[in-house]
Amino acid sequence: MLRTLAPSGSPIRLSELTTWLSTLAGGQDKSEELLEAVRNTFGVKHCLFFSTGRAAMCFLFQRLHKFCSNVHRDEVVVPGYTCYSVASSVIMAGLKIRVCDIDPVTLSYDLEQLASVDFSRVLCVVTANLYGLPDELEKIEQLTNENKVYLVDDAAQSLGAMVAGRPSGTFGIAGLYSLDKGKNITSLQGGMIVTNNDALAREMLLEFHSLGENSRSDNVKEYFKVLVYFFFLYPATYWIPSRLPFLNLGDTRYEDDYPIHKYPAALSPIALAQLERYRLITTQRVQAARWYQQLLPEHPLIRPILPVINTQPAWLRFPLRITGRRARAQFLHLNGEMGCTGSYPKSISEIPEISNHLVVQNQQCEASARIAREIVTLPTHAFVREKDVNAISHSLQMILSNPNYSPSGLST
């Protein structure tokens, strides 16, 4: 049987699907239960749900700019290598981007360069916590406090990760989580802002209640996507959507035109069920990461991405760098059906659509550009087995030993 792994995803259980369908048929609303569960799980006082993670981020930037007493603070500091939605959210909010380079070992900010920023026009600094590996959040929070700017802890990819016993997403004035497909837990779409700042929460609520909702037809499309996701995320069936080019699975595109709507209440039962077992989901990902750490070969062309000290990653995906261009291309070609991808192909400063909206700190973003050229990410979700990790690791070992390595039946 053909076995094809998705790059990422949190499988929806049959019990979760049937509960959702019965709730949908009965017209029940689990939104308040979901809000309460988020507040209790992460120890936050306030939570707002949006249609997507990027909608939540854009809304937060807009409200922070109004909340700030200095209207001239119109810059958002973003990591040089991060999800393109961060950049688009800044622009959608009418603000400017200041790009700061990263540490290629941890993917967190280059703290020396971050400390050199002229903060006089900075509204906030945004973390990345890529692939479920928390940034140096304690040090970044200290730096932003010293410079009297806001910290937004973007935990879209790191729900379940911890820093010194504190959840990723709870640092700074506000945090963000995502429920979009491919995230740590999912209801196929959705994003949330969490905060313990009462004044900011009041400011956000003034506008939140007036937000629109998805149309009925859009919601029906999302319901259909849930069913497709349920049936086709399995390794025995994922090959079907993965071979349909019009679906653009795995593509990374810059988009800056999307609605800011409230979260579809009908999806809340799925999110609630997944949130209730997020620790198990995280444990499964941690186990897959351990397999990679044990089985991946040591070689001069391999550079590991190391977790920051005193953190517990959630391992949305397992990242590493392959510094040889030919070896990297060969690896991705042979292991694409095993869920191995190249992630974001360009650094933020290399995206042509936003060149007029950004300033590059110290005119340097070399590490971010290097990461974009070298990084690969390996799957860690619940369908990944030890033998899959062993096959991926063996393939990499053979490629490094023989660049012409090309086995038959690699993905069987």
Specify the overall morphology.
globular
Kindly report the average pLDDT value.
92
Strand order across the largest sheet = 1-9-8-5-4-2-3-13
Low-pLDDT residue intervals, each spanning 5 or more residues: none
Structural class estimated from helices and strands: alpha/beta
Q: Do you know the CATH architecture of the domain at 23-208?
A: 3-Layer(aba) Sandwich
First-to-last CA distance = 7 Å
Total count of helical runs of at least 4 residues:
14
CATH topology of the domain at 23-208, by name, is: Aspartate Aminotransferase, domain 2
Overall CATH class of the domain at 23-208? Alpha Beta
**Biggest β-sheet description:** 8 strands, mixed
Structure description:
With 412 residues, this protein is an alpha/beta fold. The protein has a domain at 23-208: Type I PLP-dependent aspartate aminotransferase-like (Major domain) (Aspartate Aminotransferase, domain 2, 3-Layer(aba) Sandwich), CATH 3.40.640.10. Helices cover 39% and strands 14% of the residues. The protein has an eight-stranded mixed β-sheet with strand order 1-9-8-5-4-2-3-13, with helices on both faces. Helix 4 (84-92) links the parallel strand 2 (75-79) and strand 3. Helix 3 packs across helix 4, helix 3 (53-67) crosses helix 7 (198-208) and helix 12 (325-335) packs antiparallel against helix 14. The chain is globular.
